[in-house]
């Protein structure tokens, strides 16, 4: 199925039958990425008396209970309620269905740019300089969502234990730059836009949602951050249309399935 969209009087064609899934599939009881050493995402057949929800064990159907932590077990999308005292739901925040988006690949590095708490010697950071270079000459009409793919882009991102390998994160300048561009949806292949152990400051989160002192900012209610994606190397840097899919969870975050569609200008 093909469709057409118009952005600032420019017309584009999209083939909706050819989407690219950049989520990491949730393999319950199997290989999966993990942050903070939380329990793995698991599934167990429901049992009640003689009933067992597993056809392999003689049950009439498969009927399982799932246990997982969205922020730590795989691809997830979070809203401003992740850091505010107000219990804001991702279901009420994510209102965009088809989003003009840009995919860029960046090389995290040691930098003179800033972070709070202060950077450690071993920290590798996603910098403003790198983002600005990668966005150069790209269509500004597709900046509502930015997808950041870090290099090297290895398959082990789908199963990495981030307590064993320190991930990169965003500098203050990088996040301020994205906010200045009007980015509403930020997608990254790291487990957090912040350093994992940052004394609870969540500096980059607060800059993105413009929540000084973690106070709810209604102007940022519809902005989202999606973490732990995986954008395969077959996807070239450039502009796309994004469909950011989530289940109907009344919670600050939910597992998500971002789909990218290539576009052709007419």
Give me the secondary-structure category.
alpha/beta
How much of the sequence lies in strands comes to: 25-35%
Shape: globular
Major sheet: 10 strands, mixed
CATH class: Alpha Beta
Number of strands: 16
Superfamily (CATH H level) name:
Putative cyclase
Oligomerization category of the chains in this entry: single chain
Q: Overview of this structure, please?
A:
With 266 residues, the chain is an alpha/beta fold. It has one domain (2-23, 74-265): Glucose Oxidase, domain 1 (3-Layer(bba) Sandwich). Helix content is 12%, strand content 30%. The chain contains 5 helices and 16 strands. The chain has helices at residues 70-73, 90-93, 128-135, 172-180, 203-209, and strands spanning 2-7, 10-21, 42-45, 47-48, 51-52, 64-67, 76-78, 99-106, 125-126, 145-150, 169-170, 185-188, 224-227, 238-245, 253-255, 257-265. The protein has a 10-stranded mixed beta sheet. Strand 12, helix 5 (203-209) and strand 13 form a beta-alpha-beta unit. Helix 3 (128-135) packs parallel to helix 4 (172-180) and helix 4 runs parallel beside helix 5 (203-209). The longest helix has 9 residues, at 172-180. The radius of gyration is 19 Å and the shape is globular. The model has no long low-confidence stretch (mean pLDDT 96).
